[in-house]
Specification:
Blueprint (H helix, E strand, L loop, with lengths): L1 H4 L9 E4 L6 H7 L6 E4 L5 H11 L4 E3 L5 E3 L3 H10 L4 E11 L5 E8 L17 E3 H7 L10 H11 L4 E12 L3 H4 L1 H14 L4 H23 L3 H11 L3 E3 L1
Parallel strand pairs: 1-2, 5-8
Antiparallel strand pairs: 3-7, 4-8, 5-6, 5-7, 6-9
């Protein structure tokens, strides 16, 4: 919330969609509701449903989405707005990932540099950095409710294959803590990514072998640190990753 209010772009319509929290979230929201355009707290049908509710309640020309543990860098919104005014329809940037420090805080882990040219292979964008023109949602639809982990990839792939103009901002636009839903359930997320390709017209002969490749690659990448082979992991990522991850 603080990262949104700290932005230098004044015309921000801030909407919070909560899934019926009982952990003190509503107390925080109520204390700051004078700074919110809309807020809702009610059960939903998953992350996609919450995203879609927020988009439906928004009225702006450009829509960005942050999850509860994401935060923007300063000037992220103004940079996105400028790209939109220059003709972009889907704007995205780089992202800093963080790990718990064991004392209630977080420490930097790595920076993820997006690569939109490889989007037809896998999710090479950072969804918290993404801003989408409202007209794109109106034309091409919202998040699929039947996807729980790769809903953002399916949507971005749909927009990419639909010919929308993507623009990459070459700076850190947002921050995210690791161990989110897709990190914890990565095999299911990869299978949904395979399904996303098939739903958007990518053939089985291309989509399924790449799904197997992703499963093997991630299994190896998660195993190497446990074996004390961190240096090998750095080499492995440099050879096989489609995006740059730098410390």
């Amino acid at each position: 919330m603080l990262s949104v209010w700290a932005q230098d772009y004044p015309e921000v319509e801030y909407i919070i969609i909560d899934g019926g929290s009982t952990d003190g979230t509503l107390d925080i929201i109520r204390r700051h509701e004078d700074k919110l355009a809309v807020w809702v707290s009610e059960p939903d049908r998953g992350i996609s449903d919450a995203f879609n509710k927020g988009i439906a309640k928004s009225t702006g020309h450009l829509v960005g989405i942050l999850n509860a543990d994401d935060w923007y860098e300063p000037q992220s919104i103004s940079r996105a707005v400028q790209a939109f005014l220059d003709g972009a329809e889907v704007i995205h940037g780089n992202q800093q990932y963080w790990l718990p420090d064991g004392q209630g805080g977080v420490i930097k882990d790595f920076t993820f540099t997006a690569n939109q040219s490889k989007l037809s292979l896998e999710m090479t964008l950072n969804h918290p950095t993404v801003f989408v023109a409202r007209q794109v949602y109106e034309e091409m639809g919202l998040f699929r409710l039947d996807m729980r982990y790769a809903m953002d990839y399916e949507l971005m792939l749909r927009f990419w294959l639909g010919g929308k103009k993507f623009v990459h901002i070459p700076s850190i636009q947002a921050n995210m803590q690791l161990d989110g839903a897709s990190d914890q359930n990565w095999p299911k997320a990869y299978y949904e990514s395979y399904q996303a390709k098939r739903l958007n017209g990518i053939g089985w002969g291309s989509a399924y072998p790449y799904y197997l490749k992703m499963m093997i690659r991630t299994t190896v990448a998660r195993l190497l640190p446990r074996l004390g082979l961190g240096a090998v992991l750095i080499w492995f990522r440099s050879k096989f990753a489609l995006t740059a991850k730098t410390k």
